[in-house]
Amino acid sequence: MAAQKINEALEHIAKADKYLKTSFLKWKPDYDSAASEYAKAAVAFKNAKQFDQAKEAYLKEAENHENNKALFHAAKAYEQAGMMLKEMHKLPEAVQLIEKASMMYLENGTPDTAAMALERAGKLIENVNLEKAVHLYQQSASVFENEERLRQAVELLGKASRLLVRARRLDEASASLQKEKNIFREIENYPTCYKKTIAQVLVHLHRNDFVAAEKCVRETYSIPGFSGSEDCIALEQLLEGYDQQDQDQVSDVCCSPLFKYMDNDYAKLGLCLVVPGGGIKKKSPASPQDGTENSTAAGSQVEDDDDEYSRGLC
């Protein structure tokens, strides 16, 4: 079966070569027909699992579409070539071709397709290169934002924010979260603004910037419905506990369902948040013996939390 498909592909390539030849009566190559034959060859190679040859055929197809000024079809062919590189586990090279395709989509006047291509590239590279994935998601979000497709833009910004937290690029994560919050406010999705504020506060506290965390909460009071909400009350308790170096209060807030069921990257920030002073829990007002036991247990809990996330965010 594979051999049959390979022979079929080679026949299509031979036909493509004929379409590209010129003669006394044929002055210009037939780029459109050649591109069609290369596309058929690529599919045949792909079905035979000859991914390297399929990639080359797609690149030839793209080249001929470019020569024919058919940018959209050229971009599609570059994307397909990128997917062949993915099958070959050459992800950086695959992303490079998909980025090239996205530029062609933009040049062709199809920005939505460009943005979706960048998002696909981000998904491909996310487990290999976080920084590149962040860049691709931000680029995609920017394209959607320029097209006033804010819901799609903010979804991609959210992906970028979470990856920035995972990579411990907390200053950039804070700025990205602020941009998310601004968009959610613009589209009047106020409850999600509250959740983004919680994430932002956790990021600021991990940056050891209590002032920025407090300012973040104060600014959110201007968003309708925030004052008196469960998010507002929890954040006030969190900041109070952090300011007073009360690890018990901070841990209680961060272990509440409101914090635990956030996106995983932010939930981890809460679970491993330690107040200044080493994060030793305050002794409860009990007998000296009980207090010692409580203190030991608390210290053990903090150590367990630290150990759980020592290889991750914390």
TrEMBL record:
One of its GO terms (cellular component) is SNARE complex. Its main location: Golgi. It is found in: Golgi apparatus; Membrane. Keywords: ER-Golgi transport, Golgi apparatus, Membrane, Protein transport, Transport. Transmembrane segments: none annotated. Residues 281-314 are annotated as: Disordered. One of its GO terms (biological process) is intracellular protein transport. One of its GO terms (molecular function) is soluble NSF attachment protein activity. It is a peripheral membrane protein. Residues 286-299 have a biased composition (Polar residues). Required for vesicular transport between the endoplasmic reticulum and the Golgi apparatus. Interacts with RAB11FIP5. Interacts with VTI1A. Belongs to the SNAP family. This is Gamma-soluble NSF attachment protein. It comes from Geotrypetes seraphini. The gene is NAPG.
